[in-house]
Structure formats: structure tokens, C-alpha cells
Amino acid sequence: MASYSNLFITDTQYLIGIQKSFDQLCKNTATNNWIRDYMEHRIPEDIPVKHTKYPTLDFNMLTSSSIRSLAIQFCGFALVTEALLNGLVKDMENYTDKPADKINVLEVGCGLGTLACGLRKHGVNVIAVDNFKRFAFGSSFSVDNAWIDDIINMDQVDAVEKYCSDVDFIIASWPECNNDITRVLTTMRTINPKTRMIYCGEGYGGCTATDEFFEVVGDISITSMKNTNNSYRKWYNMYDFWVMIK
Ligand SMILES: C[S@@+](CC[C@H](N)C(=O)[O-])C[C@H]1O[C@@H](n2cnc3c(N)ncnc32)[C@H](O)[C@@H]1O
């Protein structure tokens, strides 16, 4: 019988591959300084883009996927830049009519805590939780690469039950494709109808959340997060966006 085992790579081969592609990518430092920023826990001002209607990273599919694996390891799924943080903070301030340091946020499934770290630097109060499901050996996230050291190890629905009465926003960036995020939304609505969810991910049928989530969300309009979406850099072939959900 034919053996297919040589079609699969081991973790070590995968890591060597990533290192090699990173070395190659770093030769072009002008393009990839921002990756080094993420590796050294600095949030880049912005990322080079092709200026299209929806700014998409200026790479072709192949380059994009190898750089993306690195970026996920060190920054996470949503690319956090100073430009994005400025837009996001402005949208939260406009919506709440409060300055950044009076805004309280619960970030669920925060991953490496990059966004939480950046928002805190802008004065926003952030409680960051993750159940560390993604941090298993061989997966994209390592605790060594976390940006903050006070991520609370907690299920996201439990976190909403515990903190929602005191928060203006629940941020969910790139939630997994299961209905935990749907339960986060329904629990939020029950506990504190004033809280808004800020969701970053793809839409109906996309690679984040679930179709049921979008049915529960109802009408989606991205206008309330214009500053955020205008400054957000998305990867080639990814269709994620930011939206405020009530
Ligand atoms: C796709 S990652 C996105 C991480 C981060 N928000 C980002 O944009 O990079 C989803 C994260 O949600 C966490 N997660 C999944 N289910 C969870 C749950 N029920 N409670 C808390 N965290 C959860 C995983 O550990 C992982 O870090």
C-alpha cells in the first residue's frame, strides 16, 4: 500500500522552514522591519500596503502566507499597528463620548495580548482573557511571545458573566469557528444591554465565528468603525473587518 507519511512535515521541519523563510524575508529589511518590531514587542506605526479601496498587504499569495505565519506567531491574527490603535481608540471615544482612560474593555480570546497591550498604551483599561487553547505545543502561539503578563486564563463566556456589567466594550478579534462567540454575544446582551461587542473577523461564511453567530448578530454595518477599518491592514485574500455589534 502506498505510504503518504513523507507528505507531512514534522514540527521541527516546520520551524526550520519558518526560520529559513524569515531569514530570506529579512534580507529585504525595508519591507520587513515591521515583522522584527513584532518579534521585539514593538508595535509598528503602519505596514507597507498597496493602496486599494480596502488596504490589502502588498504581497502576492505565496509571500503573504509565509510572512503571515510569522506575524501570527509574534503579533497574532489581527495586525496591530499604531495607525489601527489610533482609529480604534477614536471610534471608541466617539461612541462612548468618554476619553480613552475612562473606557473599560474586556478582550475575550486575546491570544498573545498584542491588542490589549497596545490599547493600554493608549490609556484604555483592558481586562484580557484567553483559555490558552491555542497555546498547546506545536501551535502558533507561545506564552514566551505574549505581550502582557496578566492574561487571565478563563473561558470567555465565564469572563462575560464576571466582568460585563462594568465594561463599555467586549472585543473579540478573530474568534474561533464555534459558537462560544455566539454565547459571548447573547450573554453580553442579557447582562448589560449598554455594552457593545467590537468584532474583528470575516463575515457570514468566513473563517471566523459561525453562520449562527451572524444570524444572531442581525444587520451588520461597518460605518460605526470607519476610523478603525480605514487604518486596518488585512492580508491578501483575507476579508476581515471591524464592526460594533449591539
Ligand atoms: C484565532 S485566535 C485569535 C487570538 C487573538 N484575538 C488574535 O487576534 O490574534 C482565538 C483565541 O481564542 C482563544 N479561545 C478559544 N476559545 C476560547 C474560550 N472558550 N475562552 C477563552 N478563550 C478562547 C484561543 O486560545 C485563541 O487564543
Describe the structure.
The chain has 246 residues and is an alpha/beta fold. The protein has two domains: 2-74, no CATH class; 82-245, Vaccinia Virus protein VP39 (Rossmann fold), CATH 3.40.50. It is built from nine helices and eight strands. The protein has helices at 11-27, 29-39, 61-74, 82-96, 114-121, 156-163, 180-191, 211-217, 226-231, and strands at residues 49-50, 56-57, 104-108, 125-130, 152-153, 169-173, 196-201, 241-245. The strands form two sheets. A six-stranded mixed sheet has the order 5-4-3-6-7-8, with helices on both faces. A two-stranded antiparallel ribbon has the order 1-2. Helix 7 links the parallel strand 6 and strand 7 (196-201). Helix 1 packs across helix 3 (61-74), helix 6 (156-163) runs parallel beside helix 7 (180-191) and helix 7 packs parallel to helix 8 (211-217). It is globular, with a radius of gyration of 18 Å. The protein binds S-adenosylmethionine. S-adenosylmethionine (SAM) binds at residues 76-78, 108-111, 129-134, 155-156, 173-174, 176, 180.
List keywords for this structure.
Rossmann fold; 8 strands; disordered N terminus; binds S-adenosylmethionine; 246 residues; alpha/beta
In brief:
The protein is α/β, with parallel strands linked by helices. It has helices spanning 11-27, 29-39, 61-74, 82-96, 114-121, 156-163, 180-191, 211-217, 226-231; strands at 49-50, 56-57, 104-108, 125-130, 152-153, 169-173, 196-201, 241-245.
